[in-house]
Amino acid sequence: LGRSEDRSQARLRQEAILARIDQAAEEWAVLTLCRTLLDDTRRIYETERQPEVLLHASEFFSRMSQGRWRRVVAGLERGDIFVESASGTQVLPENLSRGTGEQLYLSMRLALVREYSQHVEPLPVIFDDIFVNFDPERTRRSIETVGELSQTHQILLFTCHPHLLKLVEEIVPDAKVYPLQ
User: Fold this and answer.
1) CA 150 – CA 70 distance, rounded (Å)
2) Which residue of 31, 127, 142, 157 has the fewest C-beta atoms within 10 A of its own C-beta?
3) pTM score of the predicted model
4) Pairing of strands 90-91, 125-128
5) What are all long-range contacts of 90-98, with beta carbons under 8 Å and residues at least 24 apart?
6) pLDDT tens-digit readout, 46-62
7) Which of 102, 100, 145 is closest to 125 using CA atoms?
């Protein structure tokens, strides 16, 4: 009789445990589904719903980096700006090299200029020695990109570096050079 009572209590405990397992499994399934939906929503936002300025910045940055960096993205979760490499690695700007970080900054400036000019008459753009921390290849690609912007905007580029002046004249043959003495 005692064994029968022990078995009954053990079965009751077993049933209670199984009921808790079923409830936990159901909660886990709901949470997993919610997490998947949130991840999909974040991915859609980060790939398809970026502000126009970041789309322009991505275009400029990709061109300047020869495709090594493909996108500039505003993350949905914390709102941080990060860049995405061609392989899909996401990097915060503070973790980029100095030259790459300055290319990103230049890309953002060019994107803001382009976006602003879509709403008002294009204004002149002034740069003061923006290429000084770039290696020769970065300098060339960045001058090419700024040269493209010169098709729609007046660009005023100030520099005290003769080699940059020569490079600008080579890459943008229509550039007018005015020495300031």
Assistant:
1) 23
2) 31
3) 0.70
4) unpaired
5) 98/133
6) 556 557 888 899 999 99
7) 145
